[in-house]
Specification:
It is a single chain. By secondary structure, the protein is of the alpha/beta class. It has a single domain (4-187), classed as 3-Layer(aba) Sandwich (Rossmann fold), CATH 3.40.50.360. 36% of the residues lie in helices and 21% in strands. It has six helices and six strands. The chain has helices at residues 17-31, 69-78, 95-103, 131-134, 136-149, 172-187, and strands at 4-9, 35-40, 81-89, 92-93, 119-126, 153-161. Strands 1, 2, 3, 4, 5 and 6 form a six-stranded mixed sheet that branches. Strand 3 (81-89) and strand 4 form a beta hairpin. The N and C termini lie close together (7 Å).
């Protein structure tokens, strides 16, 4: 049973639509007595991967870049489950989310089996009418491929159309799906 959930918010808006979906997932997880922590990526000092491969060398001590990811790596390892929330900008996940995903390349240097079996939920919002024309499908595929490769357990994804901040709350079906995903994330 999942006891600790780490929410990664990849939007520049603290109360944006993807954050609202993440909060719904959180409510579902808390209904299953999970402890939840949140990391808000926007404003963090997280540099892009520099492809030095220091994290991939034998006896590596981790990522060579000394920035805010050094604080996030232990949180990722300690959590039983992750919620990754991102708006869709220019046909894929936000830049904040993408840098975070790229820097997860170093995570196995801190704990070799850190991804295997990790329970993951994804929340995304987009301003277009559909996941295909918005590019949401590109981000969905990226998450599916990445977490299949790492042998993580992608429990589910929830996504919906909403342009103005807070607009996703009007979509009762998606809000319920998000709550249910949170319950599923911690119960199986």
């Amino acid at each position: 049973m999942v006891k600790k959930v780490l929410v990664i918010l990849g939007s520049p808006r603290r109360k944006g639509n993807s954050a609202i979906l993440a909060e719904q997932i959180t409510k579902g997880a808390k209904s299953g007595n999970a402890k939840v922590e949140t990391v808000y990526l926007h404003g963090k000092n997280i540099a892009p991967c520099k492809a030095c491969f220091a994290c991939q060398k034998k006896n590596s001590k981790g990522c060579s870049i000394q920035d805010d990811m050094q604080d996030i790596y232990p949180q990722l390892i300690e959590a039983d489950a992750w919620v990754i929330a991102s708006p869709i900008y220019w046909f894929t996940m936000s830049a904040q989310t993408k840098i975070f995903m790229d820097r997860c390349f170093a995570l196995p240097a801190y704990q070799s089996d850190c991804f295997k079996g990790k329970r993951i939920a994804i929340a995304m919002t987009y301003g277009d009418e559909a996941p295909f024309s918005s590019g949401c499908v590109n981000a969905l595929r990226t998450f599916q491929d990445a977490f299949r490769y790492t042998e993580s357990n992608l429990v589910g994804m929830v996504y919906g159309s909403a342009m103005d901040a807070g607009q996703i709350k009007l979509n009762e079906k998606v809000m319920q799906e998000a709550f249910d995903l949170g319950k599923k994330l911690v119960s199986e």
